[in-house]
């Protein structure tokens, strides 16, 4: 076995990337188990998921993401920036491209700034608020009382629950999130975001991700859901600075929903065995 890989992260949300643009490296039936093995931070490479870059019949490239619990995620905001960086650096795409995901095809603009830092702007899918589109049980937009929390929800490529709190740093995410993540109203589960509104155009967020089954340093689709719901409730304006544990993102809520943020390559290597 001789498998080249690249490790990347978007604001600390880290991924192992396998380039399958020229052909299959890991057979489809082995991809879930591969992710479970190599995402392990003690016995593997370590990561929140494994990104597979593939050819696409309808876009410039295609992205698949498998997580440590062997599930496949429909979409990942930080992951798509990491995949875009790799594809750009490898010469697979230009400064503008499209990426096919299970949640739809996303236009991407990217490049390096004057300081040599990589950035990407993703045109996200429009947030879906109706319960049937999240998916969640019942009708209308989602608002439920789950334990001590008032919970809102939206789908920004994957389902996200959003909870507004006074002090996000005071939340025990590991203890508080699972009751929401696995609530019966979410038939496929949900990511859980605790959000503190810090200004007219800023929020602070912590995210518990399904599939990872723990708190991650950052979540692009979670930041998008949190900003979109906060804007919908009149808590912030249309352009929102989002502070995650791993770094900043900017979400623009308008005719198009945009996410802007960085991505970085950590290292490359080869799996031998």
Give a written overview of the molecule.
With 273 residues, this protein is α+β, with helices and mostly antiparallel strands. The chain has 2 domains: 2-123 and 260-272, Diaminopimelate Epimerase, Chain A, domain 1 (Roll); 131-257, Diaminopimelate Epimerase, Chain A, domain 1, CATH 3.10.310.10. Helix content is 15%, strand content 43%. It is built from 5 helices and 18 strands. The protein has helices at 31-38, 77-89, 173-176, 178-181, 220-232, and strands at 2-10, 13-19, 49-54, 61-66, 72-73, 96-101, 104-112, 118-124, 143-146, 149-155, 159-164, 191-199, 202-209, 214-216, 239-244, 247-253, 257-262, 264-272. The chain has an 18-stranded mixed sheet that branches. The model has no long low-confidence stretch (mean pLDDT 96).
User: Strand content of the residues, in percent?
Assistant: 35-45%
Query: What is the annotated CATH architecture of the largest domain?
Result: Roll
The largest pleated sheet is described as: 18 strands, mixed
Uncertain regions spanning at least 5 consecutive residues: none
Question: Nearest-angstrom radius of gyration?
Answer: 18 Å
Q: So what's the CATH class of the largest domain?
A: Alpha Beta
Provide mean pLDDT, rounded. 96
Query: Into which percent range does the helicity of residues fall?
Result: 10-25%
